[in-house]
Amino acid sequence: MERELISDQDKKVFDEYVESLNLSLEDFNKDILDVGSGFSEFAKYARENNISSSVFSLDPIRKMEETEKSVKGIVEKLPFRDESFDLIISHCAIPNIFIGEDLRKIEASFLEMMRVLKKNGEIRLGNVLKGDIYPNQRDFVLNLNQTLDKLKEEFNVEIEERLIPNRVNYEYLKDGSKRGLSKSYFVKIKKIA
After folding, report:
1. Which of 55, 75, 83, 170 supports an S-S bond with 178, CB 3.0-4.6 Å?
2. Cβ–Cβ contacts within 10 Å for residue 113, how many?
C-alpha cells in the first residue's frame, strides 16, 4: 500500500511537469536536466515507467533517490561538461531558488544553464510567478527580465513567455473580495545553433 501511494505521488508530480513544461513524447528522447528536482519524482517516474532513462536530477540538498543520475549541486555551478543536455527544465523551483538573491546569482545560473545546453536545446521553466505573492518577488522579476535581455544580447536565443491559464494566486480581503497577487508563466529559452 505504501509503495502504491508513493507511485501515485510520483505520477501526480510527473503529470504536473508534463503540463506546466509543455513536454511531448519527443522530449523524452532527449538528455534532460531537472534543476531543483526535490525528491526526484519526475525522473523516477519516467525511468520506472520506461518513458525515459535520460533524466538527470539536480538539487542542492541530497534528498532524492540515490542514482547515478541524481546529483547534489547548485545551478550557478553545474557539475556537467559543456553542451551536455538537450533540455533543461525547472518546475516551480525557479524563481523560488532566486527569491532574495541578487542579479549576479541569477545571471550566473542562467549562464551555467546556457553552457551545459546543446545547440538547438531549450530551457523550460514552469510556474514562474510574477506579481506580489512574495516580498522579494518584484526584485526577482526585474532581475530575471534583465538576465533574459542579457541572454538575448550575448547568445543567439529565442525567448517565449506565456501566461498559464487558471494559475492565479489570490489574497482574500476582509470584505470577502479577492485580488490577484501573482500569475504563473511558462518561459522557454531556445539556444539557436
Report:
1. 170
2. 24
Closest among 182, 192, 130, 132 to 161, alpha carbons compared: 130
CA 158 to chain centre: 17
Q: Is the pLDDT of residue 5 over 50?
A: no
What is the structure's pLDDT at 95? 64
Instruction: Say yes or no to pLDDT of 52 above 90.
Output: yes
Q: CA 108 to CA 16: how far, in whole Å?
A: 27
pLDDT at 82: 97
Close Cβ partners of 181 (under 8 Å, ≥ 6 residues apart): 131, 132, 133, 168, 169, 170, 171
pLDDT confidence band for 4 (50 / 70 / 90): very low
Cβ count within 10 A of residue 32: 24
Share of the chain above pLDDT 70, in %: 80
Q: What are the Cα distances from residue 7, in Å, to 15, 46, 53, 117?
A: 12, 11, 17, 30
